[in-house]
């Protein structure tokens, strides 16, 4: 037989995936459309669970109060303003306040203050399911039995501790934003209890702060009193030591300094003056002595210099007389000559005046010499006195070092004593007027509506969780999707031509009326309106009874493909195969052969499924001989053919027990020479030979028959047959894969098909095509 591969049935190019690499919104919306029932179911189920929870949940009421931490409340009781707190210090203080409010000590104080130790909601709250089960187990096994008998005081203390623990569990304390306000909220099944506990907590905190301040002031006052007494005694002792040391070392002081120091300072001042006087006298004496050394001749000239430095009236007068005589002498000399007696007398007078001036200078020199010697004696005397006083002051300085040490100790003790005395007075004042640095700015009111459970939020959350669970389940379902749904899947995954969809018939699908209902209602109304499958006899005649249906249109598409692909073969042998049992290849083969026969083609339908000849079982009466007998030559092949009188369709049946002992396996029949002879005879007699073969996945009959066939039409169940299975089988069966004319997706749910189609795909427009079909 001719084994040439068909040129148009070769591997088709892969379909280019134009979807977004990250997420394809079209596919996402299609998946939601396909799985919306799952999403709705899970959402409704979650909402019902939330409603059930709300029905059985105990309502809880929350009451809240707010406390402001304010340091300015104590500014009138404190003498000095406290320094501004940094942000970190404020955060630390607020955090400490929150922990104090959560502490067990404050909880016990609230229990005692509000008398809550006997409150049943706190000491005996409603038991949870786990606690109830635990109680049952304890009652049965005694594992959780109580211990030894305790006293009433221990029981009362245990109830008190338990009430405090329950308060801590239901209490919520937190800082309000970044402010200095702390909110205190308590939740319980009783609104009055919630309001009572919240108010009591605020009062207990303020009372605790007052008590803490009072106790701290009390302890500080007692400690400061002890320290003041001790410091007072030590300061007094130190002051007495200073005075004793002064008296013993003769360290008398006036105006803040020792007398020796003041005396030494006075002597130094006098010495400086004496030194200045001695220097001045020495200068005058030296000057006059130098003038005397020049002789009496220059006495008049030197007297001019002396008059500038020394104020002497006698020399002044003598110089005046000397000047007048000199002038008269010059006048007489000019008028009468130098030898004139008057001129001579005047010169004698000038000489006498010069001698008088010289004698005056000598007397002044002697006077200044005496003054100089006196000044030097006084300077030396002062130096001697300073040396004596300095010696005594050195001893006083050595003693004063110890004195300063004693004075510093006394001063320090006095300062510390005054500081502690001041702090003691402040502590005493604060103890007499304690102030809490906090105040309530929002009173706890009686709640009028429960704070938990929040019905709207729980129902909304249930719906969201239900949608998430439904989405997860739908995602798992989508990930488990292995079947072929679209013609594009056939082309991209199997790389074969798609011949179309055969709709699912015989059942109500998705709550809709069964396809072809109007066609078969008038024939077998009771079968169509029920959920039972359509009788096999009717399913083989769908193409004749509904020639304008989608089913018939797909068969016509398959016929056209066969004619185009096998146009050079006037007599065609076409095998109808499937990958797995139950995919409807028998129904397709019968309707396809019936379509060809109705079109005037000489058509032979061969039931070649030797193990499950369902087509032959529909024949009435049951055939006595069939395909196996014709292949073996037991009967002429023409005598085994049955003819449908309405369509002239020839059928070669298959008797279920027709195989003889000559063939141990059914594939031997298809590979036998008799099968080749039968197919050659069929080619000579018929235009089309349609062979209904067994699935080529579980058995090899189709592979053995491949040598006789011109082509195969592969029938796959829509969405059921895994594409990986079909692809692996086709890759393994090269002879069959090369002769596949196309693939038909059978049992397609036409109502769900658009939900699997891509945006713009032909599947999305199926509803628009229905006007051309009559079903």
From TrEMBL:
Catalytic EC class: transferase
Pfam families assigned: AAA_31 (PF13614), GNVR (PF13807), Wzz (PF02706)
Database matches in SUPFAM superfamilies: P-loop containing nucleoside triphosphate hydrolases
Domain Polysaccharide chain length determinant N-terminal, residue spans: 23-113
E.C. code: 2.7.10.2
Keywords from the named record: ATP-binding, Cell inner membrane, Cell membrane, Coiled coil, Kinase, Membrane, Nucleotide-binding, Transferase, Transmembrane, Transmembrane helix, Tyrosine-protein kinase
Transmembrane spans: 39-61
Residue stretches making up the Tyrosine-protein kinase G-rich domain: 405-479
Membrane topology: Multi-pass membrane protein
GO MF entries: ATP binding; non-membrane spanning protein tyrosine kinase activity
Catalytic activity: L-tyrosyl-[protein] + ATP = O-phospho-L-tyrosyl-[protein] + ADP + H(+)
Domain AAA: 572-716
NCBIfam families: eps_fam, eps_transp_fam
Family the UniProt entry places it in: Belongs to the CpsD/CapB family.
Annotated protein name in UniProt: non-specific protein-tyrosine kinase
